[in-house]
Amino acid sequence: MTVTEETKQSKQSETTSSASDSAKWYVIHVQTGYEARVKHALEQRVKSLSVEDKIFDIIIPTREIVVVKKGKKSKATEKVFPGYVLVKMILNDESWLVVRTTEGVTGFVGAGLKPTPISEKEVEAIMRFVQQEQPKFKAKFSVGEAVKITEGPFADFLGTIESIDEGRGKVKVLVSIFDRETPVELDFLQVAKL
Fold first, then answer.
1. Statement to judge: residues 108 and 34 lie in one domain
2. Pair 45, 120: CB distance under 8 Å
3. E strands of 35-150, at which residues?
């Protein structure tokens, strides 16, 4: 690489980094369930239409959760904001058109036709929330649902869910003992749907 090529390359990287610094985060509304497809399609369009200097980053905020299915705990990825994708871009007519005409995008979040940027603080808060270590439990039950207790001293008893504590992975089940409804706190793994 010659000195002039190095100088050109460093000037281009400085321009890109200063352009990236002036970019803002915008929220786009997409069809729910199509967030990954929209992200992929938008990344392809950015490359093919050569607007890498206007659209810099596309994020689908997700986090890991623990799901209890058929008595087994497993990790799953949950979208924090289903139907929304974050895009870091310099907003002008060209970049707006690239994003807005991407298949699956229904519009920008903002007042009227003018997209409203979100602050760096808000994006950092979202990223901190996404990166939190403690996965929460996701119950496949609902309050008032009839369940069967599968383990413990009340195994094979039938009951009705009174409350759900997803944070601790517990349910409170009303069990009929001696013709009286008695609340029993159980782990998600100790109950099954009827």
1. yes
2. no
3. 55-59, 62-69, 72-79, 84-89, 105-108, 110-111, 114-115, 137-138, 146-149
